[in-house]
Amino acid sequence: MKKLLGILLLxxxxxxxxxxxxxxxxxxxxxxxxxxxxxxxxxxxxDYGIWDIVKYPTKDAWxxxxxxxxxxxxxxxxxxxxxxxxxxxxxxxxxxxxxDIERVGTCDDTEIIIPPTNSAGEKVTxxxxxxxxxxxxxxxxxxxxxxxxxxxGAFSACYKLTSIVIPDGVAFIGNSGFYDCKKLNAIVLPVAxxxxxxxxxxxxxxxxxxxxxxxxSDWKNITIHTGNEPLHKKGILVCNYVEK
Length: 244
What we know:
alpha/beta; Leucine-rich repeat, LRR (right-handed beta-alpha superhelix); 4-stranded parallel sheet; 2 helices; 16 strands; 11% helix; 24% strand; elongated
């Protein structure tokens, strides 16, 4: 009997060693990540849940959302603009109390309303290069009065955009700013406008109205680079426009 018990004990020890050896050699990609472990390097593609409101926005103060990866527990946060502005846009600080819109980020609105400030209170003064490039489902943008510049390609290939109002403080639109906005048929330009870049409105062949707040002589002083044939259509320009 003792001999049999000894054999069974030895067999059990062998199984234990074998099991431990198998655990040590497990492929890291097969490790199941626990929800309480925080972010894990093996989580190659996060599976985020829905956004939960951490702090509600008020009439004049930003709020905050958060969501957590169901695989590894990583949490990310998103600012909620005050009022009814679009959520998820990516801002970059200019270090002088102003900021620019860098890209559309997680915003999936078809009507994008840009706030006048970011969550840090910095004024939104610029739209960076290709910030809204190929936002093919967006039908309209509402730009803040704080805006002063629109960089190259900022709104290019926004195929469903039909009209846009450029704020009074904008003096410059970069090359290809609205290139290939196929359905763009009307635009409001301020008297402050000084330069319209190359191919800015190229392929905007449905353009039928330019509402300009300055006079005809003011219009002639704008530097309009080549590749903007839609702006030169006969009867398209309406000067001394006052937005109602």
